[in-house]
Design goal:
The protein folds into 5 domains: 97 residues, 2-Layer Sandwich (Defensin A-like), CATH 3.30.30; 65 residues, N-terminal domain of TfIIb (Single Sheet); 67 residues, no CATH class; 109 residues, Serine Threonine Protein Phosphatase 5, Tetratricopeptide repeat (Alpha Horseshoe); 32 residues. It is flat, with a radius of gyration of 33 Å. A hairpin with a 4-residue loop joins strand 7 and strand 8. It starts with a strand and ends in a 7-residue tail after the last helix. By secondary structure, it is of the alpha+beta class. The longest helix has 30 residues. It is 55% helix and 9% strand.
């Protein structure tokens, strides 16, 4: 996934604050056309704002309605908008509602006070506190929908100060400052104690268990830079390692959707992101696939978005699933394909390409043919809708407005067509008729 600087004015490629480049997908036709922000959740995490805020900001700036579906992770702006245009608007959002006014650092949080109709941006890097422009329509939305995990509200700060003051009085610690808040609390003392322990520890635990623990603490990007013997193995061996990795998590009772980060990290470590959907589909989907498609949408999108090779592998896995539960799923093939399309699993052109070729790569050819036949009702609809859209765009109808009676106009057209036909059959008579018309022409008619 392409990453860009949160502050677009900073051109340093080593700038520490990064966010994913916005990905948009246009859906629907005619008046129902809409733009889905595919990776809005990832962008929101990178800038520490709820995904509904930038989505609503798009609507305010474009004068369009927005749809915020947190349950299904769908963030939509009505109308057709390019990813480049939305990226520019997102940069404006970052400048207005993310960056600190003093240091341009994005490490800011909101102090939302609905009763006072005031939003304060607090920078944890430099300590600056600035007011958000309340004239913008997004400010009203934020007042009505404050961040759920906002820890900078005055009520919470007051409770924290009282709690620290009470602990200091009971334990006989250094007296609190004038605000009643002991700034250097037990957390700082614990940190100092840990620092002393670290200074006294001259060695490093090199046991296998300690090494594994340190590997788990590493970020996903750092893991990819460490030495990896598994990369020397064949693609099939690496695929089996990944398959067993996910299978063990499921057998341990873990929710694959909640283990998204570790699953993506393992796929990147083994360099099989293109084939990972094949393993995930086989392990996560069964005869209840229609209910499971929205459940595991976010996990699959991490592998499938803008990756046509992975989407093709995924459709192969889809054939495997249908073949495994053929009695239950074969009649539902069209509904399943529509579910993949509606939930952004697979792009339209990949589905249409899959429809044109029956393959025996994943299942027997006769089984694959049955799956394609049962999916025809959806693929034909998809193809027809695309052709109708093209015809609507190409068709150019000229409309002529007249105050005359429609029947009179129609009669004149018929007479004109009749004269043209006679002229073709008898050119000499047509020339004579034109000469008569010229002689009868009155100057007032010109």
């Amino acid at each position: 996934m392409a990453m860009i600087n949160v502050n677009h004015k900073v051109t340093d490629q080593f700038y520490r604050y990064k966010m994913p480049k916005l990905q948009a997908k246009v859906e629907g036709k005619g008046n129902g056309i809409k733009t889905v922000i595919v990776n809005m959740t990832d962008i929101a995490k990178a800038i520490y704002r709820p995904p509904g805020y930038p989505t609503k900001f798009f609507g305010c700036e474009l004068g369009a309605q927005t749809q915020i579906d947190k349950k299904n992770d769908r963030y939509i702006v009505n109308g057709s908008h390019s990813a480049e245009k939305l990226q520019e608007i997102l940069q404006n959002f970052v400048e207005k509602f993310v960056l600190c006014d003093a240091c341009d650092n994005p490490e800011t949080t909101f102090n939302v006070q609905p009763k006072k109709e005031k939003i304060t941006s607090i920078c944890t890097a430099c300590g600056h506190q600035g007011l958000i422009d309340m004239r913008h329509r997004l400010s009203t939305f934020i007042l009505k929908n404050p961040p759920i995990d906002d820890s900078a509200t005055p009520q919470k700060l007051k409770k924290a100060q009282q709690k620290h003051a009470q602990q200091a009085a009971e334990n006989g610690n250094n007296s609190p400052d004038e605000s009643g808040f002991d700034g250097w609390s037990d957390e700082v003392k614990t940190t100092k104690s840990n620092k002393k322990d670290q200074e006294d520890d001259w060695g490093e635990d090199t046991s296998e268990e300690a090494v594994q623990k340190r590997m788990q603490d590493l970020g996903d990007g750092i893991k990819g830079l460490t030495h990896n013997d598994d990369l020397e193995k064949s693609v099939e061996d690496r695929f089996n390692i990944f398959f067993n990795f996910v299978k063990n998590k499921i057998n341990a009772g873990l929710d694959a959707a909640a283990e998204e980060k570790s699953i993506i990290g393992e796929a990147e470590r083994l360099d099989i992101k293109d084939r990972a959907p094949l393993a995930l589909a086989e392990l996560l989907f069964n005869q209840d696939i229609l209910q499971q498609i929205p459940k595991y949408r976010i996990l699959f999108l991490r592998f499938l978005v803008s990756n046509q090779k992975a989407q093709k592998s995924f459709l192969g896995a889809f054939e495997l699933i249908v073949a495994s539960y053929i009695d239950e799923l074969l009649p539902k093939v069209a509904h399943i394909l529509k579910g993949f399309y509606d939930q952004d699993y697979v792009e339209e052109e990949i589905i249409l390409e899959w429809d044109t070729k029956v393959s025996k790569k994943y299942v027997k050819k006769d089984v694959s043919q049955k799956i394609h036949d049962n999916g025809k009702i959806f693929t034909d609809w998809l193809r027809d809708a695309d052709e109708e859209s093209d015809e609507d765009e190409e068709e150019d109808v000229e409309v002529v407005y007249t105050h005359r009676d429609a029947n009179l106009v129609l009669k004149e057209d018929e007479e004109r067509a009749k004269k043209e036909e006679e002229a073709k059959n008898n050119p000499q008579a047509a020339e004579a008729a034109e000469e008569e018309d010229d002689e009868d022409l009155d100057i007032d008619d010109i």
